[in-house]
Design a protein that fits this description.
The chain is an alpha/beta fold. 33% of the residues lie in helices and 16% in strands. It contains 8 helices and 9 strands. The chain has a 5-stranded parallel sheet. Strands 3-4 form a two-stranded antiparallel sheet. The chain has a two-stranded antiparallel ribbon with strand order 8-9. It starts with a strand and ends with a helix. It binds adenine (ADE). The site of adenine has 11 residues, from strand 5. Keywords: Cytoplasm, Methyltransferase, S-adenosyl-L-methionine, Transferase, tRNA processing.
Length: 250
């Protein structure tokens, strides 16, 4: 998969060299290109923003640098053999970024990210590129960050770990919170490892029982308990058939 990020803070994307994403790059599973938006400015001050039409506080990112940057990045990618780009624009006013969307994006060959600063990017930029490719405006949560770069890191990590061969154990995202399947939309319950006692705390007996059926049932009960406590909205969304009598007594 090819990733391009156009930003006024290229150094913000340095974590893309670390850990899972960094290793995926080193193995050639991810081809990452970070670009400085200011390279496409033409004035002495490298201006990327201006005051909003209609008035109001803050500044808006200008069409010119974004259009020139995206045209160059896209031409470069096509020339090196990439195809079917999608533009990802992080914004608090976007659609929620979910595991389903991470799966959808992980199936695309090429993602181009346009993280904004200030009050956002002139609307015409998204409207223009939407005539050429899918444009995903995504929000990583109901809070406002100073810019979209942190959201790029979040989306990239969620997508990269879904790529074939990136996670060590192919099973490890099967039981993820939010993964499709038997535990559909339940949060993951607690996990334990050695030693069996720590500061007077034991691990639940059932996990030592070797009884796979009982362990699976316990995990599901704990997942349901945790989801009920932290995300009752997810429990409400489960099909009624997902629960049995014992669940309803919990
Ligand atoms: N930029 C600022 N806040 C954001 C958010 N919550 N999600 C995505 N991009 C953002």
């Amino acid at each position: 998969m090819r990733l391009d990020v156009v930003t006024i803070f290229p150094e913000y994307l340095e974590p893309l060299n670390v850990s899972l994403v960094g290793k995926a790059r080193a193995r050639g599973q991810l081809d990452v290109h970070v670009h400085d938006l200011r390279a496409w400015t033409h004035d002495r001050h490298n201006t990327v923003d201006d005051t909003p039409y209609g008035g109001g506080p803050g500044m808006v990112m200008k069409t010119g640098p974004w259009g020139d940057a995206l045209d160059t990045v896209l031409a470069d990618g096509y020339e090196s053999g990439s195809h079917a780009p999608a533009l990802i624009v992080p914004t608090p006013s976007g659609r929620p970024f979910t595991q389903d969307l991470a799966v959808e994006l992980s199936e695309r060959p090429w993602l181009v990210f346009s993280p904004a600063r200030y009050e956002g990017i002139d609307r015409r930029v998204m409207d223009e590129y939407a005539t050429r490719m899918p444009v995903y405006e995504v929000s990583i949560g109901d809070y406002v960050l100073a810019g979209g770069e942190a959201a790029v890191l979040v989306v990239t990590e969620a997508v990269a770990r879904l790529l074939p061969g990136v996670l060590g154990n192919a099973e490890s995202h099967r039981d993820d919170s939010f993964a499709p399947g038997a535990m559909a939309s339940l949060l993951e319950g607690p996990v334990y490892t050695k030693p069996p006692q720590w500061r007077g705390r034991d691990i639940p007996d059932v996990l030592l029982s070797g009884h796979h059926g009982k362990i699976a049932r316990w995990r599901r009960d704990e997942a349901l308990r945790r989801t009920t406590a932290h995300r009752p909205d997810l429990v409400a969304r489960c099909a009624p058939g997902a629960f049995d009598k014992k669940d309803r007594e919990m």
